[in-house]
Amino acid sequence: MLEMTNVGVTIEGDNGSVEVLKDINLKFEEKKIYVMTGPNGSGKSSIAKTIMGIYQPTAGKIILDSTDITNMSITERARLGIGYAFQRPPLFKGMTVRDFLNYAAGPDNTIMHCDLLYDVGLCAQDYLEREINASFSGGELKRIEIASILARNLKVAIFDEPEAGIDLWSFQRLTETIANMNIKYDTTIVLISHQERIIRLADEVILVAEGRISGITTQGKILDDIQCLDTGCECRNNCIKGGEDNQCLIL
Amino acid sequence: MLDTLDLKLLEEVADLHGLPQGAYNIRKNGQAADRKTTANIDIITKKDKPGIDIVVKPGTKEESVHIPVILSQSIGDLVYNTFEIGAYADVLIVAGCGIHNPSSEKAQHDGIHEFFVRKGARMKYIEKHYGEGEGTGQRILNPKTIIEVEEDGIVEIEMIQIKGVDHTVRDTEVRLQKNARLIVSERLLTNLEQTAISNITVELLGDESTAQIISRSVAQDNSHQDFHLNMYGYSKCRGHIQCDSIIMDQAHVTSSPMISALNTDAQLIHEAAIGKIASEQLIKLMSMGLTEDEAEAAILKGFLK
């Protein structure tokens, strides 16, 4: 189990320090699927980066299976079984998809490159020897990024807007792949998304606003709220609100 | 005879594990050390200056020539090699120089290679440079490569210098006739106080000739790199220069790609980029379990592949 207790993160920027996360308390239980949602800039990716160790907490604790990982490096956390699929994957000029997936799997693991790429909707024959450079579309990069997570046998896998750039025809396969990862490897999945079809995977939905957890709910509740918005029914006033304009979080 | 050190240098510069298959000429410390010719490839010692003539018969297919140079002493070595690649031949030429300098004096090899790639011939030329040795003497390699490519000829060049060369000036000149094609791939790494200068000039003389230069380099420590990549379009031709460098530590890199169109149908493009390793790249690989040093090495290995 992964637990964040009273976690705060302050980042030093050019214009001084910014408190991006405040008093985050979350429990991610084994084998469950969580979806984090909320307005742009609310802190969803910051929570993910703090779990991965990219941001270091300035307050609170993070515990993974009874081990305090609060001050651990990115590498140490990765080796304990945490993985993070970036929202905007970087390019690696010169590095082939094959090499990239091999690095992801680690030196002690053999992987089936073809199966991995098939799972993310890419043909291995067309992609394995290609460099991960600007010739790839955003959607292709995203798929390779997701494949790099699938290549690892993870305890906790975080996907930051995995649907971005993925065409409608491949969406079903993406959601099936993520669900299968959860079932096959007992991986705890954390998805950051605004998409209804992603939210439908969730055991729990975490609502984030202004750097705080503004609510934890079920997919049924939040999808009901979306339905209310679509039909303009009166229960809109009961929707969970947050952000600068106190707008509905699931817009 | 070749000793253990020679064999190690041969492996570094020509990926050879022992003597090569096909034709070869091994030069060691300024002298011919071993040679083999084939029915289609002749190697002749020049009479007027140090060096060899390599003659590939027209129509020769799937044969190779290895011409590695080994320096295990602190000497100055100058050699002139001329290659005649007969019409419609298809050959691989592996050159390269490995220096092991055990002394405080400099060891230098200057190789001047001139190629005539005849009509319809195809040549892949690999040139790898490597230096090592416990001595404080400089290891210097200055290759000059001049290539004439006749109609329908295809030339692919790989120039690689990854380790141990203190100073290099690389001059490459290529002239392309009608429908000739050129692909140049340059990979260069410098560290410590090393300096590297690469001058590549390509003249697209014939209609439908094409050229692509892809240069990638990594400059570490206090090393200096200077690239001058020039392309001239005299005809209905296409050319592309891409020059990427990763800069680290206190290194300096100058990149000057230049394209000149002397015909309205010439289409020439240049791109140049110098930058450090992006933190996102390091973080991504670290999030896959690599240490920062391992991530950096993986990025550089891929970049210079």
Automatic annotation (TrEMBL), chain A:
The segment(s) forming the ABC transporter domain are 2-235
| Annotated coiled-coil segments of the chain | none
Q: Does the keyword Cell membrane apply?
A: no
- Asked whether the UniProt record includes Transport among its keywords, one would answer yes
What GO cellular component term, any one, is given? plasma membrane
Superkingdom:
Bacteria
What GO annotations for molecular function exist for this entry? ATP binding; ATP hydrolysis activity
Q: Which UniProt keywords apply?
A: ATP-binding, Nucleotide-binding, Transport
Q: Which residues cross the membrane?
A: none
A Pfam family cross-referenced in the UniProt record is: ABC_tran
Protein name in the entry: ABC transporter ATP-binding protein
* Source organism (scientific name): Sporotomaculum syntrophicum
From TrEMBL, chain B:
> A GO term (biological process) for this protein?
iron-sulfur cluster assembly
Q: Which InterPro entries match?
A: Fe-S_cluster_assembly_SufBD, SUF_FeS_clus_asmbl_SufBD_core, SUF_FeS_clus_asmbl_SufBD_sf
* Highest taxon, organism lineage: Bacteria
Question: Domain SUF system FeS cluster assembly SufBD core: where?
Answer: 85-303
**Signal peptide: which range, if any?**
none
Write out the similarity annotation.
Belongs to the iron-sulfur cluster assembly SufBD family.
> What's the protein here called?
FeS cluster assembly protein SufB
User: What species was this sequence derived from?
Assistant: Sporotomaculum syntrophicum
